[in-house]
Amino acid sequence: MKQDLKYFLDSARQAARLAAERIKTIYEQYLSGEDIDIKEKGADDPVTAADMAANQIIVETLKRNCPEHAILTEEEPDTWDKTGEEWVWMIDPLDGTKDFIKGNGEFVTMVGLTHLGEPFIGVVVEPATGLEFYACKGFGAFKARLSQRDTSSRARISDTPDMKYLRLAVSRSHRDPRVDKFIELLKVQDEISSGSVGRKMAMVIDGEADIYVHPAGGTKVWDTCACDVIASEAGGVLLSGAGENIGYRRPSGDIENHYGLLLCSAKIRDTIVRASRKVWELD
Q1: How far apart are CA 49 and CA 37, in angstroms?
Q2: Same domain, yes or no: 179 and 114
Q3: Which of 14, 50, 197, 263 has the fewest CB atoms within 10 Å of its CB?
Q4: Is the distance from CB of 115 to CB of 86 less than 8 angstroms?
Q5: Alpha-carbon distance 43 to 258, whole Å?
Q6: CATH number at residue 268
Q7: Is there a contact between 122 and 135 (Cβ–Cβ < 8 Å)?
Q8: From CA 112, how far away is CA 12, in angstroms rounded?
Q9: More confident call, 150 vs 16
């Protein structure tokens, strides 16, 4: 099993890195004024040539390296019924498409692997900066740069956050009024804005912020799977807004994270969960 997990992690890193490099190339072309294909999948839900190119790279890499595994990816709705399989790759090739279009660099590529619904492998890469976070269950979380392929350092969530000066990662463009209630309950002093759910979670994993809460629904399994295991291995917890673990083995087609999510250090879990449950009016 140990050797298998190392191989799976190497495959995930290869897929995510190749996809991120392709995204960066297309992004730089876009910033230079070149036209790229942008379509609407649905209301206020764009998809670009970068999304599709990254998706193809990741899917082809994982199919070649891990042909026995199921693949569930945001960009292929006919894969969304794979949540009940034994081994499932959960992929968001470009999380933060709107931020890609805005040109602010705040987007990530996410590749996660579950076994019987439990996250085992996670890789998150920021194409614009080359920053990479990755983890394998039981072996720790790490941070690297695409430009320094063989150099990694431990990723560690701040385990002694100052409760009098909490830093909260918040959405740059989708402000939910319940976030203000959360800020009031915890007396949050500092808000750090960013696009992309995955990037905000990476900010907590990297110690740039102490908490991320997403009190609304709308996130999917591919938004959380990779960061779930990275956060856990880095000393944190990624939970639903109700304070429960996010299970990934579900009835076919159930891809929604229904109660939002929160991410913080395991040491302040109870305090953050109490506040979150009040915001959700569960207590």
Answers
A1: 5
A2: no
A3: 14
A4: yes
A5: 20
A6: 3.40.190.80
A7: yes
A8: 8
A9: 16
Find the DSSP H helices in the chain.
2-31, 49-65, 97-102, 177-186, 197-205, 221-233, 269-279
Q: Can you tell me the distance from the alpha carbon of 123 to that of 12, in angstroms, rounded to the nearest whole number?
A: 7
> Residue written as tokens 């499932």?
88
193 strand-pairing partners = 170
Closest by CA to 242, choosing from 256, 262, 267, 227, is 262
Domain, as residue range, for 61 = 2-154
- Contact between residue 233 and residue 205 where contact means Cβ atoms under 8 Å apart: no
Q: Are residues 48 and 99 in the same domain?
A: yes
* 20/141 same-domain check: yes
At residue 202 the predicted structure's pLDDT band, cuts being 50, 70 and 90, is very high
Which residues, in sequence order, are CB contacts of 174 under 8 Å at separation 6+? Answer: 216
pTM of the model: 0.95
DSSP count for the chain of H helices, then E strands? 7, 14
Number of domains observed in the structure of the chain = 2
State whether residue 166 is helix, strand or coil. Answer: coil
265 has which bridge partners? 236
**CA dist., res. 271 & res. 249, Å (int):** 28
Query: Which residues make Cβ contacts (< 8 Å) with residue 247, sequence separation at least 6?
Result: 117
Strands 108-115 and 87-95 turn out to be: antiparallel
End-to-end CA distance of the chain, in Å?
41
Q: Are 135 and 251 in contact (CB under 8 A)?
A: no
How long is the chain? 283
Sign of the alpha-carbon torsion through 132, 104, 228, 181? positive
Interior CA angle at 52 toward 196 and 129, to 5°?
45
Which of 261, 256, 247 lies closest to 88, judged by CA? Answer: 247
